[in-house]
Amino acid sequence: MPPLDLLPGTLELLILKAVSLGPRHGYGVLKRIEQISGDRLRIEQGSLYPALYRMEAQGWIASDWGESENRRKARYYRLTPRGRRRLEAEASKWRQLVDMMGDILRAEPEAQP
Amino acid sequence: MSWRRFIRREAWDDERAREITAHLEHEIDDNLARGMAPDEARTAAQRALGNVTLVREEIYRMNTLQRSETLWQDVRYALRLLRRSPAFTAVALLSLALGIGANTAIFELLDAVRLRSLPVSRPEEFVEVRISNATHGRTGNFSARHSMLTGPIWARLQNHPELFSTLFAWAATRFDVSDSGESRGVDGVWVSGSFFDALSVRPVLGRLVQPSDDTRGCGSPPVVISEGLWQRQFGGDHSVVGRVIHLDGVPFQIAGVSPAAFRGVEIGHAFDVAVPICAEPIVSGADSRLDRLDAWWLGVIGRLAPSVSREQASIALASLSPAIFQTTVSPRYSTTDATNYRTFTLAAFPAATGVSDLRSQYEQPLWFLLGIAGLVLLIACGNLANLLMARATVREREMAIRLAIGASRMRLCRQLMVESLLLAVTGAAAGAWLAGAVSRALVTLLSTPDNALSFDLDLDWRVFAFAVGVGALTCLAFGLLPAIRATRTAPAGALRAGGRGLTDSREGFGARRILVVGQIALSLVLCVSALLFIRTFWNLATVDPGFRLDGLLVADVDYTRAGIPPDRQRDYQAALTSALAALPGVSGSASASIVPLTGNGSNDTLVLDGKPQKPYPNLETVSGDYFQLLAIPVRAGRSFEARDTMATPRVAMVDQAFARTFFPGAPVVGRTFTFESAPNAPSPTYEIIGVVGDTKYMDLHDPVGPIIYFPSTQDPQPGSGVSVLLRSSAGRSATAAAIVAAVRRVSPVARVSVHELGTLARASIVREQVMATLAGFFGLLAGLLAAVGLYGVMSYGVSRRRGEIGLRMALGAGRPRVLRLILGEASVLVGVGLGLGTGLALLTARSAQTLLFNLKPYDPLTLGASVLLMVAIATLASLLPAVRAARLEPTAALKED
């Protein structure tokens, strides 16, 4: 199965989730998402950083310079309390959406009276 | 987006670059680990990330103030547009500059009169000490502009460091600085030793008056001159210190020069010379007020001691008061006055903004003028909004196209607002510049020869904020509506409609009509207030004072230095008076203790049959020729004659108002009266020998009231000065020199100043004159602006309806019918506007009530005249477009479509 493209507007949610699992740098966020998705998801790398800064400006994530596992300087992102609330809200919205979509798609033709 | 990040965006960009590099390095590491060749690993990583510059640019843009950068574009675009329509730009800028200038100028005056603090640190600690409970008034002699306390009270107030860290007294005065002959007055101020120190004034040259200068007896007192006088009279000569100037003929040594920026504590009045209070007896001689218990002439201001509040100071002053007032009762006071005096209580009043007699006089008129000027600005804004909306219809297509290709409404609105803002800012800047000149001109208008006003009119933050605020408000007022309207176009509709307004929005035109209605309503308000103020001034200027004013000159003669003993002063005054009557061109002369209409006055409590009476009659001591000279008719009895002397019983004459008030319906001649008096000096009994016509006394504003006249031949205390009234056919300038010469023949050391009584009397109505001038000017301006607005809307309407009118005419409507159609439409607008305006005008007039003279605020004549005037203006403004419509060639008009 070829990798899927991301639905618009879902990148932020994925980043929030990835960062919620522990602080990581930009590349790490990318790898983590792809890894969880079982490499089924393809993320446009160019849109990752603008999204990160937008979210940082919103106060959902915070960042600091740190040293990575292979001894490279990298900027580490972590979830803020505001980000955690945002993640919960967005995740619950997403689940409702999925449920609703599923219900609609499972609908059978109604029996004619 | 924060400013901090905007400013640090270069550093940010750098950081992003490092972060992205780190990202690449990580991916390359991974790729290498997967066994790629180094080159391949790098290329693959870069391919995965895409265009790094693009990413960085996107982030960079996030951190820019995008608005500010497009704002700059908008400004340049607006500038280009404004340059392309110079006529519109000129009209807009001119009306804004005038409107904002007038408003700012009036506010500047208001600020100077009302709001400005004394130029000291922590001005809020300054308090004025005065009597808080003089409900029954104070009795005695009031001789300065701010006569609040007497010398003896001031002496007892000093030495209370527990209340005031510094306390000073002052009194404004006029000094004659001429060395001989006709007097030349300058504004002076008596100051206590601590005056300059307390107000933290530093000398420009030499030294200022110090506490050691103000000691009893005074020695040889110094004088401090103002920087203005130093420049005018001494050409800024640095060797001026130590030179001698004569004040009222007394030599004073100049100690120093005070800075021009320091004007003293009385708002609106500056001083040219400052002299220690202790020198007052030297200058005034026997008339000295320093130790007189009933001479009110001093103002007292102090800085509260640390940690003393104004309330605490007031409480402390109240507890000091009984001791002060018990020990300073004047023996001249009657029993009632003395009892009243003993109850006086001192208190501390806020004085952070100095003291001012102008405040009560000018504050309300200035607020009113500010309102009027604000309305004019509003009308001008209406016109601008109208013009902008007319322009918007022209630009409708441009807007439609831009909306169609994706411009947001906000973006277009912003662009249009930038255009308005540019106009408003430029207009406000020009207005603020104009305001300086206008407010100075206003001060000159309000000044009279004997009462020069001087204000600190430097641009302070309040004036600046006001100009900026007015500019912003005007921008909103005239820019917002057109901007919203212009961008509300539905793109499809506007594009389809093409250039000509087949489907021209009724709504837009409706907004313009509403604007015109508002303008007409406001113009009527301004027209009514203009007429009210003009009629007030007219009423005052033509009010009958009860005597013939034309050709009357006043010669104030001061012969203090002649040293005439009191018992010879009566004859001396008579000699002076008759010497002036003999001058060529002079048809008569008379002396008067109070020159009428000059704001001076004297009154006392009348006692009839042992009972004190209200109101207090005004008092006037005159020579026998007074009534004949002023053409005041003698209604009953006789006038003063030479046979009324100190040796004969005391006589008096009264005016008809006196007779009406105290003896209604009864004969007056032959009745007697006395005054309330001190127990040890009983008042003589006066017999009324004649009744004369009513005259105005202190001021043209005052209604006529009871006046008692005494003969100068029975004056018990003539004093060392006299005012001689004389009627001259030649006028002041031609007669003044002869008068001075004649006086000097009688007394070589006497000083004379000569004025026209008419000029002096008019000085008291200068406020009304300025109000009438300004309100008239603003009213005219408003009428013109409204006419322009109406003309614009009507001719736009006509040009829009060319097709329709052509059709009507083709179908048989005659020209008169078309004329009626257009005029009818205009009259609806004017009618609604005038209807609204009448209501507003009545409200406005009511708030101006106290500023009017002999005029009801609901004056039907004024209102009627204003409405007629507005109708005339409106007819003229709409006649032109109507005639143009009626002259339309139907064929031509129809072909255009």
What's the topology here?
The complex is a heterodimer of chains A (113) and B (897).
Chain A: E1 4-5, H1 11-20, E2 24-25, H2 26-36, E3 41-42, H3 45-58, E4 61-67, E5 73-79, H4 81-106
Chain B: H1 3-7, H2 9-33, H3 38-49, H4 52-62, H5 66-84, H6 86-115, E1 126-131, E2 141-142, E3 149-150, H7 151-157, E4 164-176, E5 185-191, H8 195-198, E6 205-206, E7 222-226, H9 227-234, E8 244-247, E9 250-258, E10 273-276, H10 280-284, E11 295-304, H11 310-326, H12 335-342, E12 346-350, H13 358-394, H14 396-404, H15 409-446, H16 461-486, H17 491-497, H18 506-542, E13 552-558, H19 566-581, E14 586-592, E15 606-608, E16 611-612, E17 618-622, H20 626-630, E18 634-637, E19 651-655, H21 656-662, E20 672-675, E21 686-692, E22 707-711, E23 721-728, H22 732-746, E24 751-756, H23 757-763, H24 766-800, H25 802-810, H26 815-847, H27 860-886, H28 890-895
Describe this structure in words.
The complex is a heterodimer of chains A (113) and B (897). Helix content of chain A is 54%, strand content 18%. Chain A has helices spanning 11-20, 26-36, 45-58, 81-106; strands at 4-5, 24-25, 41-42, 61-67, 73-79. Chain B has 897 residues and is of the alpha+beta class. Chain B contains 28 helices and 24 strands. In chain B, the strands form three sheets. In chain B, strands 1, 2, 3, 4, 5, 6, 7, 8, 9, 10, 11 and 12 form a twelve-stranded mixed beta sheet that branches. In chain B, strands 15, 16, 17, 18, 19, 20, 21 and 22 form an eight-stranded mixed beta sheet that branches. A four-stranded antiparallel beta sheet of chain B has the order 14-23-13-24. In chain B, a hairpin with a 2-residue loop joins strand 8 and strand 9. In chain B, helix 6 (86-115) packs antiparallel against helix 13. Residues 498-504 of chain B have low confidence and may be disordered.
